[in-house]
């Protein structure tokens, strides 16, 4: 059940911008908001950490508010919220003992040298910059009511940019740093 809920939420979240854009005129507001609310509620119940549960409850509350107040225009703000939450997770880790990227790197390299720690901190900062850019772009497109461009950006372009950033960092790490 846990795995199925995680997979379903991931798939619907990835497809969310296009589902919303193409379904907004055909009653998708209710079923998509209800589905997202329900999936985030399920996720809140099965999360391992308190921080993950809080984020899941927050996103479930967002979709519940969208439904209660009948504000379909609020649906455009989900990608902005996700970017903001990712920024908070990555950015908050810059003030912790280890950054989020360092913790991931230590799964493969438990004895990460000081230069590796500096590198992971820099990569974390780059991801923070990406999430600032991504959230800002989605917000500006929603505010300017450029819904065609919002769908293209949040449903296609932003995933491409994430892939390029991820792949570029991986290639740099393997080819230049030889880690």
Structural class: mainly alpha
- Major sheet, described briefly? none
Distance between the termini: 37 Å
Report the order of strands and helices.
Answer: HHHHHHH
Mean pLDDT: 91
Rg for CA atoms: 18 Å
Q: Would you identify the regions where 5 or more consecutive residues have pLDDT less than 50?
A: none
Q: Quickly count the helices.
A: 7
Beta content comes to: under 5%
Protein name: Integral membrane protein
Keywords: Membrane, Transmembrane, Transmembrane helix
Describe it.
The chain has 179 residues and is mainly α. The chain folds into two domains: 1-70, no CATH class; 72-179, no CATH class. The chain is built from seven helices and no strands. The chain has helices at 2-23, 28-46, 50-68, 78-93, 100-108, 114-143, 147-176. Helix 2 (28-46) runs antiparallel to helix 3 and helix 5 packs across helix 6 (114-143). The longest helix is centred in the last third of the chain and has 30 residues, at 114-143. The relative contact order is 0.10. The mean pLDDT is 91.
Summarize the topology:
Elements: H1 2-23, H2 28-46, H3 50-68, H4 78-93, H5 100-108, H6 114-143, H7 147-176
Protein name: Integral membrane protein
Keywords: Membrane, Transmembrane, Transmembrane helix
Transmembrane segments: 7-23, 29-46, 55-70, 76-96, 126-144, 150-172
Write out key terms for the chains shown.
mainly alpha, membrane, transmembrane helix, single chain, transmembrane, Integral membrane protein, 2 domains, 179 residues
């Amino acid at each position: 059940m846990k795995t199925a809920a995680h997979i379903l939420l991931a798939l619907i979240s990835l497809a969310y911008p296009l589902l919303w854009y193409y379904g907004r005129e055909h009653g998708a507001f209710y079923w998509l908001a209800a589905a997202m609310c329900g999936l985030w509620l399920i996720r809140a119940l099965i999360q391992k950490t308190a921080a993950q549960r809080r984020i899941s409850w927050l996103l479930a509350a967002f979709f519940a508010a969208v439904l209660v107040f009948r504000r379909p225009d609020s649906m455009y703000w989900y990608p902005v919220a996700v970017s903001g939450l990712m920024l908070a997770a990555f950015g908050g880790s810059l003030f912790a003992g280890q950054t989020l990227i360092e913790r991931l790197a230590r799964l493969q390299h438990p004895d990460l040298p000081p230069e590796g720690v500096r590198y992971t901190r820099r990569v974390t900062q780059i991801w923070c910059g990406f999430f600032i850019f991504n959230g800002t772009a989605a917000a500006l497109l929603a505010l300017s009511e450029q819904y065609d461009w919002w769908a293209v950006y949040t449903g296609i372009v932003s995933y491409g940019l994430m892939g390029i950033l991820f792949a570029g960092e991986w290639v740099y790490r393997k080819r230049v740093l030889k880690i």
